[in-house]
Amino acid sequence: MKSYLFFCCSLILLFLSSCGASVQFTHFTPDKIKGLDLGMNRNEVLEILGPDYTITRKEIVDQDTIEVVYYQGYVSDQRYLFQFKNNKLDKWEKEIQRRQVLQYGSDLIK
User: Fold this and answer.
1) Is the pLDDT assigned to residue 110 strictly greater than 50?
2) Which of 31, 39, 92, 95 keeps 20 to 30 A from 52, CA to CA?
3) 53-92 b/e (C-beta count within 10 Å ≥ 16 → b)
4) Across residues 86-102, what is the average pLDDT?
5) What is the DSSP string of 24-53?
6) End-to-end CA, the chain
7) CA distance 19 to 101
8) Order of strands across the sheet with 78-85?
9) Domains in the chain, start-ordered, CATH in brackets?
10) Neighbours of 45 (CB within 10 A)
11) Closest CA relative to residue 41, chosen from 85, 9, 104, 11
12) 44 pLDDT above the threshold of 90
């Protein structure tokens, strides 16, 4: 019985370890920005940065297609915005959102 249990556990561990080796993490990290250059096409940029983006704006201005995508940074109040003009990287920036601090307590009411 012990050898059967050992065999089953070994099989499960082997299966889990082989699955873990095939997973590739392509999530956004700020250091990936170092691989970008202005003028790169949209597909190249998104391949480098990963699939976890959100399209925040898309419009046509003076016959140019403008699209802005953002990636959430490690810290929840940081976003990285990337603007494409006619599918070419036009600019990027880091945005820090302000946090609203709410204070509660009876000593605040006067």
Assistant:
1) no
2) 39
3) beeeeeeeeeeeeebbbbbebeeeeebbebbbeeeebbeb
4) 81
5) ------GGGGGG--TT-BHHHHHHHH-S--
6) 74
7) 44
8) 54-61, 64-72, 78-85, 88-96
9) 25-97 (3.30.1450.10)
10) 22
11) 85
12) yes
Spatial separation of the C-alpha atoms in residues 75 and 72, rounded to whole Å: 8
Whether 22 shows a pLDDT value over 60: the answer reads no
Assign 1 to helix, strand or coil. Answer: coil
Give the separation between CA 96 and CA 93, rounded to whole angstroms.
10
Tokens of 14: 């082997």
